[in-house]
Amino acid sequence: MSANTPGHSRGLKKTHKATIAGVAALSAAALTLSLVQGNGGSTETEPQALSGTQQVAWSYNAASPQAKALAASVTEQQTTIGLKAKQEAAAKAKADAKAKADAQAAAKAKAAAKAKADAQAAANAKAAAKAKAAAKAKADAKKRAAEKAAASRSVARTPVFANNLDGWIREALFIMDKHNIPGTYNGLHKNIMRESSGNPRAINNWDINAINGVPSKGLLQVIYPTFKAYHIPGTKFDQYDPVANLVAAANYAADRYGSIDNVNSAY
How far is it, in rounded angstroms, from Cα 86 to Cα 79? Predict the structure, then answer.
């Protein structure tokens, strides 16, 4: 096969080609010689003419120094060629093994780098989630603290009212102020005196409302439908409760008359 035939690992080097050519020439020369038996001397054969060209054939004695040198030269060259081939094959195997080891090392390094990057990403995500949870917990705690403080301030700002007519009026005014319901102490007091004389359990059982089944009750004599419609959340849902009664009545008077202060008769 030629050096360019597919499947051949590589072509012969120039030095190999020259050496092989030399060996071939020597071998060809040796084959043109004829071995002779006898006393170890050499004789010349009769020259012959071949196709017009005269060639000389030499007799050959294997024991002669020339023959031994020729054989040694051929053997040495064959040995050199084999040795070089082995060395080159070993070098190629070594290079292939190194390339394979390098590829394996690169793959291992790449896998290790990916594992490290994945671990770092997971750690970062975990840290971010932890930080987010901590921030939320902190914000929630801050919000609860603010709400608690606000509730405490609200409690602290809420005065304690006496459980009597003066205290009921003052507490009603405190609640009315929070809900923007107009009215004054005097406006509430004068209507209380006219309607119930300050009795939170007062009830009217003889007027038209009583006849209709909805008697007026409490300090400002409020009927149930009016109390229900104008009741302020945060006060008791009870017509007889003095503060709830005053606030609901003041809310109704503000809606109908502008203020409880403008009411000077039955309303």
Answer: 10
